[in-house]
Amino acid sequence: NMGAEGMDVQQQILHALEKNGVVISNEFAVSEKETHQKVVGAIKSLESLGNVINVKQIALKTWECTDEGNNLATSGSHEARLFNSLPPEGRSLTDIKASFPNSNFALGAAMKNKWLKKEGEKVIPAVSAIEDEVQIHLKAIAAGGENSVPDKIKAEYKKRKLIKEVDMTVFEVSKGSAFTTSVMKQEAELTKEMIESGQWKGKTFKPFNFKSKGRIEQRSGYLHPLMQLRSEFRQIFLEMGFTEMPTNNYVESAFWNFDALFQPQQHPARDAHDTFYVAEPGKTISVPEDYLQKVKKTHSSGGYGSIGYQYDWSREEAHKNLLRTHTTAVSARMLYKLAQEGFQPVKFFSIDRVFRNETLDATHLAEFNQIEGVVADYSLSIKNLMGLIKGFFEKIGITKLRFKPAYNPYTEPSMEIFSYHEGLKKWVEVGNSGMFRPEMLRPMGIPEKVTVAAWGLSLERPAMIMYGINNIRELVGPRVKMELILDNPLCTIDKWTPTGNNS
Ligand code: PHE
Questions:
Q1: Which atom of ligand 1 is nearest to the CA of 502?
Q2: Helix ranges (DSSP H) in 301-423
């Protein structure tokens, strides 16, 4: 907001420009008796108007008073002070030497200037009035008007440590292509009244200052960086028309976590070394019985064109409670529900916590968040899956993708997703994907012609990359620094460049 005074200086600068064609900020400050800072402020405001003025920066050496110099500028030189302290009849030399500070210097200088003379023991005025040039010079230098002081004198004052040389930036202002002496106060806001009255047409508006640091607001609640990133990923899925799945059940049965996904009961991932089983309550209350029977049959003897795994499927094993090891357990529940309610095409996503009995290290914790996308429709193919994945990763700024054949018990085909990392100059794994197997979908009651494409990745991996964290313990747990949370930018996702393995 421009004060009236600030406006005045701007006007003065414009008039001076019209008259002289050029204004040098420091000289202008001296001639107009303004501080240099105020003149520079006015120049900056005029500069922001567009092409009214041209501004060139000049680095200068200039002079500044030392503390002693400022003292003399305010109170006068020693010799002048001595002259002014003397009565017309003078004082004795001993008296002056005993009572006047810096008397030797003051006496010497005053004599040299012929202001005082000796008469026997006494010092008496030799003139009726004096002009204190030292004070005048120092005052001029203090106000930036050093040009009025001869170089020889400046050299002498420098030797006496009354002034010192300093660096200074001054601005040379000339007329711009849109030069005018009548600048209007720029409006900072377009108001309802301006629009209604049509006044806005005649106004000029202050340009947005995108370099402004903004105001530090009262600090209130902040999202943890991981949760912020989660909300950004959530936004991407929502933009792509996906619906979020309910993921609020960390405790899951082995049935939904593994069996429903056609993961055999002997599979190593089901081992207690890889999965946390729940001791109390150790068993799930119930699983839909007719569906369980179909799952049992598919595992033990096959169906839907498959011969299954050919083993004795155990209800006991399926009823065990565990901490879900992936969010695909939720996808299984949702697809089953969808089939019961009458299938229609869907796009689902989830972002939530999963648990694995891992050896903890710099990049692995026993719990992390998974991002999962699931699309169910008639006759989807792997081509659609790859397109979906491309679209999703493009939204987070990843364009170079490659797919590598992989194996998951519940998808066929399965593909690991790799992205080219510009920094590391190599392909790094960023996710896993596949088409859900008929052995998983058909027992649920999903219609024949329907296929389901799905992909997943961890939330922590991109988070570590975006926040530049190498040790996951700095992102989760008591070692998280408050600054990370408080100074976290509002939007992080555009910074995501993958650097490593996803799981
Ligand atoms: N569930 C897989 C994992 O835990 C990810 C995945 C999801 C793979 C969907 C294929 C399809 O890594």
A1: 12
A2: 315-319, 328-341, 382-395
Are 329 and 256 in contact, with CB atoms under 8 Å apart? yes
Q: Kindly give the distance from the C-alpha atom of residue 229 to the centroid of ligand 1, in angstroms, as a whole number.
A: 20
Name the closest-CA residue to atom 9, ligand 1: 455
> pLDDT means per 10 residues in the chain (503 residues)?
61 94 93 91 89 93 93 95 93 92 92 93 93 95 87 94 93 93 82 94 83 75 86 93 97 98 95 94 96 98 96 97 98 98 98 94 90 97 95 85 95 93 76 97 97 95 77 86 76 55 40
Ligand 1 binding pocket (C-beta < 6 A) is 326, 328, 372, 408, 411, 432-434, 454-456, 503
User: The tokens of 236 are what?
Assistant: 């991407």
Which contacts of 419-427 are long-range, i.e. CB under 8 A and separated by 24 or more positions? 419/393, 419/498, 421/497, 421/498, 421/499, 422/497, 423/497, 423/499, 424/499, 427/402
Torsions phi, psi of 31, nearest 5? -70, -30
Query: For residue 392, how far is its CA from the centre of ligand 1 (angstroms)?
Result: 15
Q: What is the DSSP string of 275-328?
A: S-B-STT-B-S---HHHHHHHHHHHHT-BTTB----S---HHHHHBEEE-S-TH
For residue 480, the model assigns a pLDDT of 85
Say if residues 38 and 31 touch (Cβ distance below 8 Å): no
Considering only CA atoms, which of 200, 201, 172, 205 is closest in space to residue 16? Answer: 172
